[in-house]
Amino acid sequence: MKLFGIEIPVKNIPALDPGFIPIGAFNRAFLQTADKPLGIAVERAGGEMAVAETRIHGTPDMAEADRYYVNRLVKTILWMKGGFRVYVRGDTDIYRYLKAAFADGGAQDFDFHFMSGVFEHPFEVVETETLPAAKDCPQKLGGHLEGCRIGFDAGGSDRKVSAVIDGKSVFDEEVVWFPKTNADPDYHYAGIVEALKSAAAHLPRVDAVGVSSAGIYINNRTMRASLFLQVPEELAEQKVKDIYIRAIRDTFGDIPFTVANDGDVSALAGMLSLGEPNVLGIAMGTSEAAGFVDGAGCITGWLNELAFVPVDCAPEAMRDEWSLDIGCGVKYFSQDGVIKLAPRAGIALDESLSPAEKLKVVQKRMEQDDPAAAAVYDSIGTCLGHTLDYYYGLYGMKHVLLLGRVMSGKGGDRILAEAKRVLAEEYPAAAAAVLPALPDERFRRVGQSAAAASLPAPAGR
Fold first, then answer.
1. Taking the model in full, what pTM does it have?
2. Given Cys at both, which of 384, 395, 426, 443 links 273, Cβ 3.0 to 4.6 Å?
3. CB-based contacts of 223: which residues, under 8 Å, 6+ apart?
4. How many beta carbons lie within 10 A of that of residue 211, not counting itself?
5. Distance separating alpha carbons of residues 339 and 359, to the nearest angstrom
6. 445 pLDDT exceeds 70?
7. Tens of pLDDT along 331-371?
8. pLDDT value at 312 more than 60
9. How far is C-alpha 278 from the chain's CA centre?
10. In degrees, to the nearest 5, what angle opens at C-alpha 193 toward C-alphas 300 and 227?
11. What are the CA-CA distances from residue 338 to residues 186, 229, 330, 372 (Å)?
């Protein structure tokens, strides 16, 4: 296959998505003929800096390829790590292109506005002669089992809470709630406090509280979260950004607490169950959610929003309705990926059904060993095999836990088997280093809310 005049060798093509161009394969082919140094740095909260030393061609005939490569590189860094300022060193034309693309009304308008909101800072692209140094501030979160702790897991359809004493759960509760459809932030606050008090009733005291919640959290503050989707912006600013901080302090006073993205807590639960760090968790459900615990057992504070990280370079790749970008993970590794491929396999899906119901149709056929359903899952597995190699280049992870509704049942088994096959055949270095797996019963016993309880360090540490 060829893109921007660059020949991209790919052995394994997903049968139901033959136009799929793995971004990792494109990048390798692009860099083989690129020799002009280019530096990119992305700044995020606290002066943390992601730095990429790379190359472009810098010639008129390859200008389009250069712009595409750098656009996808910057977008990947932004959604993997987050940031509000992009530094460019080494090419003024690329700087001007990025400044126009990542701007209000530019090609990457969504990224521009989203990152500005998350980091509460105007997004900007600047040219520099000296690239800033890389800086990360990983935190050794989790694994604290001592004392009387509460873990709270806020999901979109239910909330879970655990009371834990010295690492042993003494109480668990799961309550249905409707955060995504409720516009009153007091509804959310009341639900959080009710859960905390319910767990506290089973403890002699409360030493610390850990929260696992979908969304983006910086310094325990809610910067973006679908749980509060219906809350008006002005109310969100007043009552949502500090909602967990207020709920914990109002209920227990000044005790240690930590609020973390649920993907990171899933990765932490994986680390606790595996007994090893360096875990990337990928949940394929309504979207593609992810979390990462590094080789030192630390949560990095990165966004890890892999749903919006590009994985497919095909010009005709499916467009995401929210970000309006194409070729990003959400359309491949979520229920959207199944729904996209099912008609191509000859599986008719009633348009009156919800996305979750459409997924169940395909899952039922897979449980009956329907070859059409098997083709859907095999194609997802092929795409995943290529993408796991790309993620390995970004994270360097050892373990990959594949979670979520899409990975359940026989379909999940086929996805895993095909991904491993593609890794072994095309990416032997990644195949030798990465251990993709489905969660086992030990992982399920750890539990999201129980893992969240281990997040905060004890007082004085």
1. 0.89
2. 443
3. 117, 118, 119, 120, 215, 216, 217, 241
4. 30
5. 7
6. no
7. 999 999 999 999 999 999 999 998 889 999 999 999 999 99
8. yes
9. 15
10. 55
11. 36, 25, 11, 12
In angstroms, rounded to a whole number, what is the distance separating the alpha carbons of residues 74 and 97? 12
Q: By the 8 A CB rule, do 364 and 415 touch?
A: no
Strand 435-437: give its sheet, edge to edge.
288-293, 279-284, 399-403, 435-437
The predicted-structure confidence for 106-146, as pLDDT tens digits, reads as follows 999 999 999 999 999 999 999 999 999 999 988 877 888 89
Q: Cα(259)–Cα(265) distance, rounded to whole angstroms?
A: 10
Under a CB-based contact definition with an 8 Å cutoff, are residues 47 and 31 in contact?
no
SS3 for the chain, per residue?
CEECCEECCCCCCCCCCCCCCEHHHHHHHHHHCCCEEEEEEEECHHHCEEEEEEEECCCHHHHHHHHHHHHHHHHHHHHHHCCCEEEEECCHHHHHHHHHHCCCCCCCHHHHHHHHHHHCCCCEEEECCCCCCCECCCECCCCCCCCEEEEEEECCCEEEEEEEECCEEEEEEEEECCHHHCCCHHHHHHHHHHHHHHHHCCCCCCCEEEEEECCEEECCEEEECHHHCCCCHHHHHHHHCCHHHHHHHHHHCCCCEEEEEHHHHHHHHHHHHHCCCCEEEEEECCCEEEEEECCCCCECCCCCCHHHCECECCCCCCECCCCCCECEHHHCCCHHHHHHHCHHHCCCCCCCCCHHHHHHHHHHHHHCCCHHHHHHHHHHHHHHHHHHHHHHHHHCCCEEEEECHHHCHHHHHHHHHHHHHHHHHHCHHHHHHCEEECCCHHHHHHCHHHHHHCCCCCCCC
In the numeric block, which tokens belong to residue 355? 């996305």
Give CA separation, 331 vs 90, 334, 380, in Å. Answer: 34, 7, 10
